[in-house]
Write a structure and sequence with these properties.
Shape: elongated
Oligomer: single chain
Number of strands: 6
InterPro entries: DUF922
Protein name: DUF922 domain-containing protein
Number of helices: 3
Low-confidence stretches: 1-7
Organism: Flavivirga aquatica
Strand content: 15-25%
């Protein structure tokens, strides 16, 4: 039996359909040297266990979580508003979208002796994809300043989350 689980020592918030972020969730001290007015730290954590005989993998299970990290997230009180909070929420929603994509890809895996390598490969790919989307989101919305682009992204992410609702985070 082989087991892998990434464990965080800091407090986290799990993504949840019915709970949106609020500024009180952002606990870190703002970086006043940064031009950013808020930073959302979020990420995907996953773990798996593999049951095997002496020669072959018999089965595997996995868990995937979309987390928000309050102790690494911050905002500049005098410069933020509800619109910017919505922008930050969408960063967390993008993390959830990729957690769902991760679960979907895992669901397509067949039990084999290569499953550990395949799981790690999917994890690496998902991390690259989510990072790229987060960057594209900030670029296209100009960090929330482009209101029209922000609205398009909000609709796009909502639609994509619905498409993958079968794989949503369960809390």
């Amino acid at each position: 039996m082989f087991c892998f689980l990434s464990v965080q020592d800091e407090p986290v918030l799990s993504w949840n359909t019915s709970r949106k972020l609020s500024w009180v969730d952002f606990k870190a001290k703002p970086d006043n040297s940064s031009s950013a007015v808020a930073i959302t730290a979020s990420g995907i954590t996953f773990g798996y266990s593999i049951k095997k005989s002496s020669t072959k993998v018999l089965s595997f299970t996995s868990e995937v979580y979309a987390y928000f990290y309050p102790e690494d997230s911050w905002y500049k009180t005098e410069q933020v508003n509800d619109h910017i909070l919505g922008h930050e929420q969408l960063h967390f929603d993008i993390t959830e979208l990729y957690a769902r994509k991760f679960r979907q890809r895992i669901s397509r895996l067949k039990v084999s002796n290569n499953v550990k390598k395949e799981l790690q490969g999917i994890h690496n790919t998902i991390n690259k994809e989510v990072s790229l989307m987060q960057d594209n989101y900030d670029d296209e919305t100009n960090y929330s300043r482009n209101i029209e682009a922000q609205a398009k992204w909000k609709l796009y992410i909502r639609t994509e989350l619905k498409k993958l609702s079968k794989y949503k985070s369960v809390n």
